[in-house]
Design brief:
Order of helices and strands: HEEEHEEHHHHEEEEHHHHH
Strand order of the largest sheet: 1-2-3-5-4
Distance between the termini: 53 Å
Low-confidence stretches: none
Helix content: 40-55%
Shape: globular
CATH architecture of the largest domain: Orthogonal Bundle
Strand content: 15-25%
Oligomer: single chain
Radius of gyration: 20 Å
Mean pLDDT: 94
């Protein structure tokens, strides 16, 4: 962080916190943000309700993004809605729409401790506490997210999914693949399967749309926060359930629920909040959808690298998972 950005953030935090003086003592870029940048800030605060110290995260745009991700003002609104609904999220504090301050819009939230790295969470049984309890808690958290329903004036920027959330996803992915320079026949097969087998529209809820291992944080005692709301929108609640349970998001773990344990524990936690009993046969469709959606995102991520928009080994490697996803899609749809 350069001095100009540091000074601008000190003045912004001082003003928003109602403090006499703010001095940033530590600032470091956190790992794991391929779409957004997250800066950890530790600041001394003189005067006001936040004295004497604040530990914060400043969230802003990465050099390039993925189509369909929310801007920071929209993500801040989503975070506030989730926080008000009782979802375990970092407390959202302040939004800055003035891009001239540090060169782009940003928002500030409280820092929450814990580990999110998926490969670590899946393999280290000491993290998250009792795994059955963790999965029940995650199911309950998802249920609270799904308690947020349209219409909402504070979330008016979220588009309606129309007559079919499932078919809207199919149409979006097909538009991208039709315009892309490389053919992906296995993905086209999967899209056709999704089209033919699309469920009827049911209730509409706020879907997180990236609710998976890697996007929640845990410590030795349990869950500490649900992260990354930049893809959230109105949709079918089973979309999130299928995403969490999809094989592509298990990171080598044996548990069918996020790689960390049994579906039944996750389902039980969800039912404890929503009263809805989840059935595997209803969720299979959305697991296929998860594989298709992740495959398209992987193609988009690779394109960011190949086009020269953002040179990144991580983005380049993401493109190499597409064949594996295509194989899984074929296997999941072969006998159905």
């Amino acid at each position: 962080m350069n001095e100009q950005m540091r000074s601008a953030l000190e003045e912004f935090i001082r003003r928003e916190a109602g403090a006499d003086r703010v001095s940033i003592k530590e600032a470091k870029l956190l790992s794991g943000g391929s779409i957004q940048e997250n800066w950890f800030i530790q600041a001394e605060v003189a005067g006001g309700a936040f004295a004497p110290e604040l530990k914060l995260v400043v969230r802003t745009d990465a050099p390039s993004g993925v189509s369909g991700s929310h801007c920071r003002a929209e993500e801040f609104a989503l975070l506030r809605a989730a926080h008000a609904a009782g979802v375990t999220v970092p407390e959202p504090l302040w939004l800055c729409r003035d891009a001239s301050l540090i060169g782009k819009q940003f928002f500030v939230m409280r820092f929450v401790g814990g580990i999110a790295a998926s490969h670590v969470v899946v393999r280290d049984a000491k993290l998250g506490g009792d795994r059955r309890v963790l999965l029940e808690r995650l199911g309950a958290e998802l249920g609270r997210i799904h308690s947020i329903r349209p219409p909402r004036d504070d979330l008016a920027f979220l588009p309606s999914p129309g007559s079919s959330p499932a078919l809207q996803h199919v149409a979006r992915m097909r538009r991208f693949l039709d315009a892309h320079r490389t053919a992906h026949p296995a993905l086209e097969w999967g899209l056709r399967w999704l089209e033919i087998n699309a469920p009827e529209r049911g209730e509409l809820v706020l879907c997180h749309r990236d609710f998976r291992t890697g996007n929640y944080m845990v410590d030795e005692n349990g869950l500490t926060a649900i992260l990354d709301w930049e893809f959230s929108g109105w949709g079918d609640p089973l979309e999130d359930v299928g995403w969490f349970c999809a094989k592509c998001w298990r990171f080598g773990g044996k548990g069918e629920a996020g790689g960390v344990g049994a579906r039944e524990d996750f389902y039980r936690g969800y039912a404890s909040v929503t009263g809805r009993r989840l059935e595997d046969e209803d969720i299979h469709y959305w697991e296929v959808m998860a594989h298709l959606n992740w495959a398209v995102i992987a193609v988009q991520q690779a394109e960011r690298h190949l086009s020269g928009e953002e040179t990144s080994l991580m983005l380049a490697l993401t493109g190499h998972i597409v064949p594996e996803l295509e194989y899984e899609i074929l296997m999941m749809t072969e006998a159905r």
